[in-house]
Amino acid sequence: MTDKVTNIMIVGVGGQGSLLASKLLGKVLLDKGYDVKVSEVHGMSQRGGSVVTYVRFGGKVYSPIVDKGEADFIVSFELLEAARYVEYLAPSGRIVTNTQQIDPMPVITGAAAYPENLVEKLQQAGINVDAMDCLSLAEQAGTAKAVNIVLMGHLSKYFDFPESEWLTALETMVPAKFLDVNKKAFALGKAN
Amino acid sequence: MKQLMLGNAAVARGLYEAGCGIISSYPGTPSTEITEEAAKFKDIYCEWAPNEKVALETAFGASLAGKRAFCAMKHVGLNVAADPLFTVAYTGVNAGLVIGVADDPGMHSSQNEQDSRHHAIAAKIPMLEPSDSAEALSFAKLAYEISEKFDTPVLLKMCTRISHSQSVVETGERAEYPVKKYEKNITKYVMAPANAVRRHPVVEERLKNIAAWAETSGINRIEKGSSKLGIITSSTCYQYAKEVFGDEANILKLGMVNPLPAKLIQDFAAGADKVVVIEELDPVIENFCKSLGINVHGKDMFPLCGEFSQNMIAHAFGRADKPVKKLDEAIPVRPPVMCAGCPHRGMFYALSKNKITVLGDIGCYTLGSAAPLSAMEMTLCMGASVSALHGFNKALGKESEGKTVGVIGDSTFCHSGFTGLATIAYNQSNSTVIILDNSITGMTGHQQNPSTGKNLYGEPAGKIDLEALVRAMGIKRVRIVDPYNIAECETAVKEELGVEEPSVIISRRPCVLLKEVKHSLPFHVDTEKCVSCKSCMKIGCPALAIKDGKANVDITLCVGCGVCRQMCKFGALKSSDEK
């Protein structure tokens, strides 16, 4: 086991279901014997606003938050949110993002425009980006609600943990009748 | 067993293990989950109180009767509970009494950034401050020992980052706490002047004794470092400091922030070349150190406002900033918004359209101040919409009476709106109050309140009849409207503002996020009928956007409330079952 602390940010739009993703991550990491901290924000900012969850693990974790220039991974449920937190990426960090776009209120009212070709712009800025249509993959697995598990499946590629450990953790937090769908979503995320 | 636990859940676990028997709280971010998690233990009776003052008085009563008791609130809630707080310091307790208070530096979900440590100092009550979930659990238990050892209420101070971070805890067993017999003691519990005069010196003496205990009890600890730098800190700032300095700096980690251990601090400072106090918000520890004649740094290096972080601390010590990636692109902000189908939207549109001055309150509906509705013009504290409206109208008379309203949610009305309405009824201002009754406490995540008919456990409970209550105050004009019907809202507002007597409009429809609320079919846009006038954009619904010049409905968000249909003169917005 490495003592180095790994930093993950899970970002998205309030109500997109990032809680289950961080719960799954936390369980897998704790079961592996790491020190883990998971930090989230509740309340007003959840109402359709930009939301962030920090997950940190390693030999010993002090701060519950990930700061600018520190994130080894930014896992994003929505494209604009991936771009919003670019400054948090570590030099070798990687963005894993859903390509789904959700217009924020200033875009809806016409006060601002949703930036175009964000994935390409991120790549041009020298950022490692894994972009995929997680909503379609989740629907392919059986439910649009499994976007979070698709993202976790993809993230799992970057950790040398046996797949069984992820699936065991998944079993403890997903109702039995939804387990197959979620396992399928995990596999699709990993394969893409 | 080791497990990851939210700070608030860890407090609840600590209360359980300490044998706490009764909890009364008012929800408030970031404190809410303490009580919700505690309610999962069948050995603790939990309830929502109408407000924090009632919660603390209830907990005090339970302590007096002999059960270990607790109440939780957010920082501004402690202001509401300040009246009993200052005097329960005088009476002391029977069984242990612990008061949980959660600050919100950075104001993630609050109207101010006040530092609760001032309340502890002013009320002369000991305050513990955990720095992670493991300490949240152990400090909750320790708080009861201190409460009973020194015959004092104890404040347990959380903050957003401790309350809403999960870290590793090891749980223990519950130690049952037998009811401690209540004994009549008029000189201790009746705070009439003659008795209070005798209690005040007891409070001062107690504070000295607790300070002496804090010197050596281990709740404040020194971590030796390899350099001569000394850092005094607590709570989440301790974690940031450790993140930056590891084992390099000497750290005095404070677990009790009131009273502070003078000798421990003096001895610690004597061994360091330079002492820096790292604390969020006000310079409480710093000023104490300076009062001891110790030369410390603090707010000369760090801000008074907002949350800290590891980078901010590293930067303040002159360390190089971490390299960051940049994207040369304007990223639109994503502020929180009223949900699609939110029952507040229709009423706010009606108010905005008629250019009514809206004095607001605390809740989801504070979002009525955001563009494009921009309807709310004032938000101060719980209940101020009603009483400030009264003052506004008394000041301006006819000039404002016909075009100004106060809006307040059902939970906030039960919290602090009754008394404001009483002044309208009693002092007779021609004021119109709108109760936005979504039948739940929304912003904090759906807690029941005295007007919902259910208790904390979701079981049937007493239900305050708001209409009857308003009438009982002598206000004759009370009417109910459906906020999904804009025309009905407009008519009611115009008529009630037109009469020369106090009136109340209850805008009633349950929160669309409640499980029992059935959603209608989503809407769609008939693009042939849509003339791109963007009228439907005026209501600020997150399910509506302009795509390729025409209105477009996000069917994954739309709940078919039909408010947008009333905005469209061309019949372009239709339910899914309409062609």
Structural overview:
The complex is a heterodimer of chains A (192) and B (579). With 192 residues, chain A is α/β, with parallel strands linked by helices. Chain A has a single domain (6-191), classed as Pyruvate-ferredoxin Oxidoreductase, domain 3, CATH 3.40.920.10. Helix content of chain A is 39%, strand content 22%. Chain A has helices at residues 18-31, 79-84, 105-108, 118-124, 134-141, 147-155, 163-173, 176-191; strands at residues 6-13, 35-39, 50-58, 71-76, 89-98, 128-132. In chain A, helix 6 packs across helix 8. Chain A is globular, with a radius of gyration of 16 Å. The two termini of chain A are 27 Å apart. By secondary structure, chain B is an alpha/beta fold. Chain B folds into four domains: 2-216, 3-Layer(aba) Sandwich (Rossmann fold); 221-316, Rossmann fold (3-Layer(aba) Sandwich), CATH 3.40.50; 344-508, Thiamin diphosphate (ThDP)-binding fold, Pyr/PP domains (Rossmann fold, 3-Layer(aba) Sandwich); 523-575, Alpha-Beta Plaits, CATH 3.30.70. Chain B contains 20 helices and 24 strands. In chain B, the strands form six sheets. Chain B has a seven-stranded mixed beta sheet. In chain B, strands 16-15-17-18-20-19 form a six-stranded parallel beta sheet, sandwiched between helices. In chain B, strand 17, helix 18 (410-427) and strand 18 (432-437) form a beta-alpha-beta unit. The radius of gyration of chain B is 27 Å and the shape is globular. Chain B starts with a strand and ends with a strand. The model of chain B has no long low-confidence stretch (mean pLDDT 97). At the A-B interface, helix 1, strand 2, helix 2, strand 5 and helix 3 of A face strand 1, strand 8, helix 11 and strand 22 of B.
